[in-house]
Specification:
Elements lengths: L2 H15 L5 E12 L5 E5 L4 E6 L4 E13 L1 H11 L2 E4 L3 E5 L14 E10 L4 E5 L5 E7 L5 E5 L4 E7 L1 E6 L4 E5 L5 E6 L4 E4 L2 E8 L4 E14 L4 E5 L7 E6 L4 E5 L6 E6 L4 E3 L3 E3 L5 E5 L4 E6 L4 E5 L3
Parallel strand pairs: 2-6, 2-8, 3-7, 3-9, 8-10, 9-11, 10-12, 11-13, 12-14, 13-15, 14-16, 15-17, 16-17, 17-18, 17-19, 18-20, 19-25, 20-26, 21-25, 22-26
Antiparallel strand pairs: 1-4, 4-7, 5-6, 21-24, 23-24
Length: 314
């Protein structure tokens, strides 16, 4: 290679390794919308994290926080534009939507991004929240929410407060609920996400594949189905007429009933084991226990999972 060609090659290499000028872009803006009792606040936030708080305020306050750095000016501007929500408001419904496109490879260098949607709302509204990978955090009492709708693909969900009922749909995101008074009903459907509730529900329906289910302070009927997730259910009260139906393939099932409970029903396993503190009879095969109580009914079945039914300490 002659000297001229070598110079051209070195110049080309210098151009290829020259870093782009990194930029930092931020968006912090707040909008307020009139609130009316029973108004539905629909948040479709995609990849943004969502935080909702109940407060003694007259309007719905929506704050968008976006920050990105470590990429080119052009791409940073495009990212902020893609993640900026659009709002449509009417008397009975506020819809806030984020539709980020495919960002692709954002560029070389250190990338720092934050995307968050914060909502402060009166207790009289009804939140309805959906994300794809964004997390959901909700605090406060929304007594008109029947149900409070929470949906996500991979984001985790956390609720601290109250609602009349809660409806959860998730793929792999886990959900942790701590309510200050029992729900009328909790419905949860998940593929691999865990479902955890403390504070109680009068009716429970959970359907999950491999997620674990841990529910405390129940006071009524329950239906739980899982493949290999662990199930733990505890009751404060089990009224007459309640039905507890549990189906599991290989997951462990643990049921803790009030000390005075004496339900009827059956406990059955194919190859697993059964331990039960309640009076009943065991069949010759040793795979089924028939309970000798009345009032409420247990219908619990596993393939290879262990079944444990016990009474709470007096």
């Amino acid at each position: 290679m002659n000297r001229s060609a070598l110079t051209v090659a070195l110049c080309a290499a210098s151009i290829l390794t020259l870093p782009c000028a990194a930029a930092q872009k931020e968006l912090n803006e707040t909008h307020r919308y009139p609130a009316h009792p029973g108004k539905r606040v629909v948040l479709d936030a995609a990849t943004l994290d969502v935080s909702v708080r109940a407060a003694d305020v007259p309007d719905v306050e929506v704050t968008t926080e976006l920050r990105i750095s470590g990429i080119s000016e052009e791409r940073a501007t495009a990212w902020v534009a893609q993640h900026t929500p659009e709002a449509a408001d009417s008397q009975d419904r506020l819809t806030v939507t984020v539709r980020p496109g495919h960002s692709g490879f954002l560029g070389l260098g250190l990338l720092t991004a934050r995307a968050r949607l914060g909502v402060v709302a009166p207790t009289s509204v009804i939140p309805d929240i959906t994300t794809t990978s964004g997390s959901i955090a909700l605090r406060g009492d929304f007594p008109s929410a029947d149900p409070l709708m929470l949906r996500t693909a991979t984001g985790d969900m956390e609720v601290t407060g109250a609602a009349r009922s809660i409806d959860i749909r998730s793929a792999s995101g886990s959900c942790r609920l701590e309510v200050v008074r029992p729900l009328d009903q909790l419905f949860a459907r998940s593929s691999s996400g865990d479902v955890t509730l403390t504070g109680g529900a009068r009716r429970l329906e959970v359907d999950t594949s491999s997620g674990n289910v841990w529910v405390n302070n129940l006071s009524g009927s329950a239906s739980v189905e899982t493949s290999n997730g662990k199930i733990t259910l505890r009751w404060d009260r089990l009224p007459d007429g309640s039905l507890v139906k549990v189906r599991s393939a290989s997951g462990k099932v643990q049921i803790v009933l009030p000390a005075a409970a004496r339900p009827a029903g059956t406990l059955h396993t194919t190859t697993g084991t059964i331990r039960c503190d309640l009076p009943g009879t065991v069949n010759e095969a040793g795979d089924t226990v028939t309970l000798e109580g009345s009032g409420s009914t247990l219908d619990i079945e596993t393939a290879s999972g262990e079944i444990i039914v016990s009474l709470a300490d007096r």
